[in-house]
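User: Continuing from earlier, I have the next pair ready.

Assistant: Great, send them over.

User: Here they are, in order.

Assistant: Folding the first of the pair now:
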Amino acid sequence: MRNLINSPDLGLLLFRLFIGLKMALAHGIGKVPPPAQLIEGVTGMGFPIPLVFAWAAALSELIGGFLIAAGLLTRQSALALGVTMAVAAFVAHANDPFSSKEMALLYLSACVLLFFQGAGKYSLDRIVFKK
């Protein structure tokens, strides 16, 4: 029991589950399909083909969140979601007070950690890719 409690991999599993499921269920699921407000926001940021970029953001939150929770394609999902969170923090909320950017920055920091750390021992990445 002591080894389980002191396991960094167990902590990483719980972290991935919380971050991934929270992102997918609290943020991503409501954006598929992308609502008009999201498409208008992407248009206002100056992105070309705003519908495509709105879909990319929505899917990175929904599918990326679920993949992070499962520990499958974790680094790739963290990169995609991290880019989405960077755009949210530094473009969409560029002129807003810190409190408006805080959530995006927290998710961005989680994505940076997962990108460099990977999914850990208790993940589908380890099973599928034998890492």
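And the other member of the pair:
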Amino acid sequence: MPRLIKQRSRKAGLSPGTLVHIGEKRAEKTRISIIEYDEKNFQEREVAKIEECFPLKDAPNLTWINIDGIHQAEIIETLGKHFGLHPLLQEDILNTDQRPKVEDHGTHIFIVLKTLSYDDNTKEIRIEQVSIVLGANFVISFHEGEGDIFNLIRSRIKNTIGRHRKMGADYLAYTLMDAIVDHYFIVLELLGERIEFLEEALVADPKPTTLREIHKLKRELIFLRKSVWPLREVVSILERGESALIQSSMVIFLRDVYDHTIQIIDSVETFRDIVSGMLDIYLSSMSNKMNEVMKVLTIIATIFIPLTFIAGVYGMNFKYMPELEMHWGYFMILGVMSVVALGMIIYFWKKKWL
């Protein structure tokens, strides 16, 4: 489970714009892939050095530069200097604890989003940051780690499926955002299945493990809410079309993404209410179980009170106790005790306390 707030101690005391990676430490090498295309041409390749991307800034074709792995700050700095990215923008790319946002820098638009994926091994939701820089004829995407979330978009561009080859950089940026938002629905479906399974276990037989699972779900929903709520504002700003880099024809597409974000927010809030209710149900169930146990113990204690009294009276061993000399006295007292116990059980049963 990711931390609520990531460690920022390495940034303490440094001047604004100092490039320091904040996030999960990674050992793998940064992967740089380039896609150049127009309506008739397509070219895809991977490069070993970031300097090979420099000629693409003013290329006539639309260029998509995708960088998987942002832990090497020198790569971000080199690319940022050539493409005219502000140092504070570069700093935000390296800080994986950013809130989803959008910034218009005139010649380019900077967008920060969060991707969601479900880890089948740990049964947890993984949240990673994706930064997108939209220019006039280029899109640069920075992914916190290597993933396959954009593979379908690459395939559609390569196979000339959809509008990609006829549209501009703003449409490509929109499809990247749409792919991220669509993955939210996949994660929410899996989360919904976990909640349904947990509800059944809660009703059938609540256990301490059930409580731990409820708290785990509640924590994951906090992270989801933190990632999803600002997304509505991001899409709303882009939808208003105040930047020259986004054409008016893109408004209808962005409005569709906005509708999806509203659906996701509603789902997250619904899940939060359900999980909160499940916590109340668990506490009530455990309280009811405790009450049942206490009721049984109380009935047992109540039955033994008169029996203990009788046994105590005839256990005092006074010299002048007529019953002590009776031949059948022992069995008579046992009989009296049995009748008293049976009578109390019948009384409790008629009162529906048993």
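Worth noting for the second one:
Strands lie at 31-37, 42-47, 62-68, 101-104, 109-119, 124-134, 138-143. Residues 26 and 71 are 7 Å apart (CA to CA).
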